[in-house]
Amino acid sequence: MNDNKTTQTRKGTPDFQLLILTLLMVGFGLVMVFSSSSSIAIVNSKFNFDAMYFTKKQMIFGVLGLLSMFVTMNIPYAKYKKLFVPVFIITLIMLLLVPYVGQNVNGARSWFGFGSFGVQPSELAKITIILYLAALISKKGERFRDLRTGYIPVMLIVGFVAGLIMLQPDFGSCVILVATAGLVVFAGGANLKHILGSLALLILGASIALGAQFLFDKISASDSVSTQATNYKAGRFQAYLDPLQDPQGVSYNLVQSLIAIGHGGASGTGFGQSIQKLHYLPNPYNDFIFSVIGEEFGFIGTLLFLLFYIYFIWRGILVSLRCQDTFGTLVGVGIMGLIAIQAFINIGGVTNTIPITGVTLPFISYGGSSLMVMMASMGIVLSISRQSNLPVSQERTKSVVIKQAVSERPAKRSFGR
User: What is the pLDDT of residues 92-101, one digit of tens each?
Assistant: First the structure.
């Protein structure tokens, strides 16, 4: 009996390499937040003339994120099949409320403000949708491949959450959530025809919605908030196609980003020596922090950083694939896929590989909600790694317990006919 209890309560060790990689990512992010924000904060009364203003806040969220990571790491990942339900409900309520009572930042109501701190519900929504999809797919099994009873109900929930995010509007977070959901659904074994059909419907629906909004804005007053938002989105696409067409207008952010990366050259200007962060590059500590990395560390340093980032993601996916449980594998792949997709959208935007969408670089950019959610998510992946490291020793213990139980069982008496 005691052996059974020991077997059930024993926990494996977390993947030490993935844990160290996560802490190194957070540490490098703190260093770059200081480098990219100190010159702005020290000359602005809004930031109390404190060069460490943004760094201190990021450190607070880093400590809170570390605590949340260790909490989620010590919860067996299987419990998230039920634990995510109340979190998902709270997230939906927050998404419903934020367009009406949230803070307006850069034309979008995506934040709940609490003094100098803010909470962004869309960050939490990205993780809860992963847990929801993983739980549902693992429960349905082969039935998930059925279009009517398996696939459509799942995608309706994803579409509903994405629609709530677009009400803010937050196009970047919406794209990340939908792309991550698509990855989890694909990894869960969905029919490829269903996925391609959903993608076609999504593109068609988005085109119709954007076209209708454009026509409405043309008819309505040109100074309306909706019109300004539409013009802003159109300007970003225009800047992507031809950055030099309006370098002092809609292309200004992108041009300054490309100048920063180009100025870095092969070896960079050196840590803390970026020129573009001195009131040229907008939000250098947030959306455009990769541009500062490119300028200060150059092509060689940036390449090393990207290789480190890729290895970090690869390690997380490897840990997830080692899990013997479908739910654990889908959650791990979804979380690491989320990090990879968001990193690609951020880096792709500031390098003009894709249009700018205004999302943070996970673990590196300044942003409390993003950092805390990402670290808590890595705690879940580390929890998966703990269970993945358990089976060999646990199976040996189980086999010993079973042998003892068999040997202690009284022999059956045979009776002749």
Answer: 888 888 877 7
